[in-house]
Design brief:
By secondary structure, the protein is α/β, with parallel strands linked by helices. Helix content is about 50%, strand content about 20%.
């Protein structure tokens, strides 16, 4: 079984993908973690980002795996648990420098498709149901009001960073626009659409499970 969850930032797709995978006993693939693992490799000088052939070959053959342990997704790179390392600020700042490279996207899409081909997977992102897994067994599209999404992000960051609600809203708006313009986001056709604006995570999960368990 392959389940895809697409949507913009702060629609709840990552949290729901993890919970859905746990509930159904499936693997969960967080696409963003792959980009962070590649960034870590570049930072450790194990991949040359200026050599397109080296970059493509090493990314395509990346030794990466995902496991769910005690309701937490663990990320393993070359057999080493890098779950916390790839969330460090230096990796977070470094990752976007190379994430937008066309050759990087092409290589990472191949990794995603390998996981999809293996099956038993919940995978989330912005173009998954269209580009990565067009033949998925179930496709979900999550969306929410911009103000609601901004408030979710603000509540998550307000105790850690000096940010304003208006700033976050503007950032989300710009990110949405960019994702649509460069086709990083593609709304999947024939997907089950769920407005998460006024729903708690567990309420959305129940809706999704009703469709999957029919």
């Amino acid at each position: 079984m392959v389940i895809t969850i697409d949507g913009m930032s702060a629609t709840g797709k990552s949290t729901l993908a993890l919970k859905l995978a746990q509930e159904l006993g499936l693997k969960y693939l967080n696409s963003g973690s792959i980009y962070r693992c590649v960034a870590l490799k570049i930072m450790n000088q194990q991949i040359d980002p200026n050599n397109s052939e080296d970059l493509f070959n090493k990314v395509v053959n990346l030794n990466i795996d995902f496991l769910i342990e005690k309701e937490v997704q663990k990320v393993f790179l070359d057999g080493i648990d890098v779950t916390l390392r790839i969330k460090d600020e230096d990796v977070s700042v470094f990752t976007p420098k190379y994430a937008g490279l066309p050759i990087m996207k092409t290589a990472i899409r191949q990794i995603q498709k390998k996981f999809v081909d293996a099956g038993n997977l919940v995978i989330e992102g912005r173009d998954i149901g269209t580009i990565i897994a067009p033949n998925a067994d179930y496709k979900f599209y999550l969306y929410a009001n911009l103000d609601v999404r901004a408030k979710r992000v603000y509540n998550m960051l307000k105790n850690r960073e000096n940010v304003s609600l208006e700033q976050i809203k503007n950032n989300l708006e710009q990110r949405d626009k960019k994702d649509i313009e460069d086709k990083s986001f593609i709304k999947p056709k024939e997907a089950i659409e769920i407005d998460t604006s006024n729903l708690e995570i567990d309420e959305v999960l129940k809706i999704m499970l009703k469709y999957v368990k029919k």
